Every structure is written in C-alpha cells, then in structure tokens.
Amino acid sequence: MEEYRLIFSDIDGTLLNSKHEVPEQTAQLLRKIYQEEDKIFILVSARMPEGMRGIRDKIGVPAPMICYSGAYILDEKENCLFSQTMEKNKVEQIMELASDRLSFNLYSHDQWFAKDPCDSWVLQESEITGIVPMKLQRDSACLSQTHKILCMGSPDVIKQMEKEIRDKVAVSVYRSKPTYLEIMSEQVSKANAVHMVGQYFHIPREKMIAFGDGYNDLEMLQYVHTGIAMENAVSEIKKAADFVTLTNDEEGVRVYLERRG
Q1: Cα dihedral 37/70/173/135 (nearest 10)
Q2: Alpha carbon distance 145, 140 (integer Å)
Q3: Over 70: is that where the pLDDT of 2 sits?
Q4: Can you give the pTM of this predicted structure?
C-alpha cells in the first residue's frame, strides 16, 4: 500500500472526462479515502476559482484549491493562502503582442475579463466552464491585479505568440493545449504551489502523489514522490512520470488509486 496523504490532480484531461464531468465512481472513491484514510484530494488547475468550485463540491472533500497554475491558492474555506499577480507593464506588453490576432483574456482573483466577450473562442470557453466574462477595458484596475492571461487561437499563431513572449517578456508561459496559451508571473508554477500546500498541512513531499496530462503538470509530477501521467497525456509527460494510468475517459485517476491503495 502506498503511504501518501495528499493527492494533487490537474482537472481538464485528467480528472474530468471528455464531457467535462467528474465520473460518479471517481467522486465516490475520493470521498471514501478521505473519510476512511484521511487522504486529501486537491485540485490543481489553470482555471479560476469559480471554474473549480463546482468540481470540488461534486467530489465533496473540503480541501484547498490551487488556481491559475499556482498563482492563487485558496484554503478549504476559500481564504487566500497565496497570491502572485503579474507586473502591469508586462500585462500591457503581452496585450500589445496579442493585438487582434488572438483572443485575449485576463483573470484577476475570481473574475474573468475578455477583450472581446463575443468572439468564438470566448464563447467556447464560457460553454465549457459555465462562466460569462466581463469586457476588458484598457484602464481597468484588473490590469495591475492580473493572476493569469489566456490567449486562444489557431495552433500556428499560438506557437508564434509563445516564441515572441519567451523572447521579449520574463513570464511563465506554456501551451495548455495547442490552441490555448497560459501566461502567469515567472514566479508561478504548480510545483511551487504543491510545496506551499504541503507546508500548510505539514506533510512532506514523500507523502504526496500527483496526476496530470499537460506540459504545465511536468514540474508538479517531478516534485511529488509519485507522479502519474494519464494515457492521454502528451508524450513528454508520460516519459517523465513514474507511472502511466488509463485515460481520463477510462477514469485513470480512480483506477490508479484503487489498484495501488
């Protein structure tokens, strides 16, 4: 039996299936191991708090939430444990780079601002998360309180934008999928956030495991004692992980936990 206390998990492509749902059997298992074994399941995502809250409630385990890939951490009562925003001049620089070729979105605390709330990318993201953004104004106060920038667009343009940002702006930037580019402060990573939550619970990394499927999960999977990649993960993540479980549509999180205790 694996001696872990904290279970960290990415959401999209990992915990959720292709219908963007938490499978009921998975939720039941997570409640069971929390109630019977005091193992805590913690969501780690690039999502905003509102996009995670319903998932945590569905699972039914009171736990912190690591939002914006570690830029904003809330405890089980949603008090702020950590907040790292971006410098305003960098936000404005990235907005200029995005221009009109990409869908530009900004997240501050539990609010989503879109440069064009009616563009097709925003409407698609809104359908997935169930959240409707506000229109971003050039003089908005949120520009100096930005936890994350999300740019959406065609894979070729996203790839080019990533290169331009890496060359010109000191930030943390990665593609969460070919059409999504996520940007946070250079001080932010899921691994740092996992470390902080471990300190909050006074639990060492040797008693942590984590599940993930995307590029931004790599450092987290390497930081914990046991990193588990989904079968549907990108190849680099599967190569770096300690184990590879089934896909998100096959409830790989639940299957791993049941088989390895």
Answers
A1: 120
A2: 10
A3: no
A4: 0.93
